[in-house]
Amino acid sequence: MSVILETSYGNITVDLYAKERPRCCLNFLKLCKIKYYNFSLFHSVQRNLVAQTGDPDGTGKGGKSIFSLLYGEQAAFFEAETVPRIKHKKFGTLSMVNGGEGIHGSQFFLTLAPNIDYLDSQKHTVFGEVAEGFEVLNMFNEAIVDSSNQPYKDIRIFHTVVLDDPFEDPQGLEKYITDRSPSPTAERLKGGRIGVDEEVDDEKGLTAEEIAQRHKEREAKANAQILEMVGDLPDVDVKPPDNVLFVCKLNPVTTSEDLEIIFSRFGPIASCEVIRDQKTKDSLQYAFIEFEKPEDCEKAYFKMDNVLIDDRRIHVDFSQSVSKLRWKPKGKPDAKKDDDEERTQLRIKHPDDRRVNKYNLVFEEVDTDVKHKRERSRSKDRHTHKKHHKKKKNRSSSSEHSLSSAEEDVRRKMVDVRKDKRKSWRERSPVSSNDQGKQKRRDTSSSEERTVQRHNKKHRSRSPSGETKRKTKEAHLGTSNQPDEKSKHKTKKRGHSSSDEERTKAKHKKKHHSRSVDRPKGREEKRQHSDSHMSREKPNKRH
After folding, report:
1. Rounded to two decimals, what is the model's pTM?
2. pLDDT(515) > 90
3. What is the CB neighbour count within 10 angstroms for residue 353?
């Protein structure tokens, strides 16, 4: 009950669990017997997980069981065998792929690591294990694959050999069995990346010099990619200009004017600069000379190398620097232009020009027309008086001095509007008696007005309408106990009746009447008001 799988990486011998998984073993053995797996592609190889094959199309979506050839398309899949339960514990476990809902076709896989518990919960049926060829499985782990786990170089099953078959052939299988393995079709070989017999050696047939040159080019390209990632190069394929010379080993006393005079005999020079230290301004003994024409640059390169200048032998070479280049989107570098019109003028904004309620950039383009037309907008929503008071305190003096005359007038108008709003809000809002008394004390400015108000209050408390109502109620109730003249005078003055019901109604009237009249304004009136109130309550207690 063994089968040999001849792959492009080597031979693998597998032993089958015929007693535990008879249906799976029957399907696998008969498919190997009719050469169904010949030239099948390992379409999925996952490192330290599985190597999957068995699909004749090489896509992982096809494959049918042996029963489809014998009984038709309705038997393309068969149910999985779950008893007894066998786990994926061993390295090189052979298992059928779950095609969905616990059914199997022709696809199977080999595990590339031991103890893969994840596969046990996916309803894959284990029906064998690898007996020989573990080195081939290790080679599967080292295969280079893409993002979909498909190897770049094809890994195929060339041939299958059945060593032991305990199952009898089903009826109708004889017509599918051949004496020799069938030749692969074009469709079967299609779908791979790099063929099995295809060589990947690009250096075959090249000389040692050509190989060394190719290695240098690859190394230079790798370095350029690194420089691009760190930001030193605008692009990998950028090239330095052909009209710039690099001059080194200069004497510290040599200046840019000296070099320009010496190299100007080869042609017109666009720029000549001796590089100096930023702090000390001492010469760093190298320079860059830019010619207007590349032909003049080549002449200077051949003539001026190893020439004596200021008792020093200089070295001249073409510049490899790209710091003077401006990269264009089209892919061609162009020298930087010093035209002030094309450059964007940048400046630091003055603090007085900043808007209060917006965030601005530190740099902006200069615009002389809009420079003196800045307006300061303020927020109009003030929820409470405290928030407005805090914001008013936190204003900086510098921003107030920077306001123009027109903005100052707008600010004053806004302050007046807010004052009017607060005043109207206070008038509408309900206040207590104490707050009302304080507010009226602030409004009255003289003692004469307070005297007039106190006099009016006394006359209101002794109004004839209140006395008439009191007599009418007494007549209606039919009270027989008439008070004497003194008690009448006291009752008129105090505003109370002798009975309990009349006292309760008189108190109720007094409360209603006190809400309509004004409260005392000053301290003296308040004291008199409290004394009179106490004097009115004393007879009630005695009575």
Report:
1. 0.46
2. no
3. 12
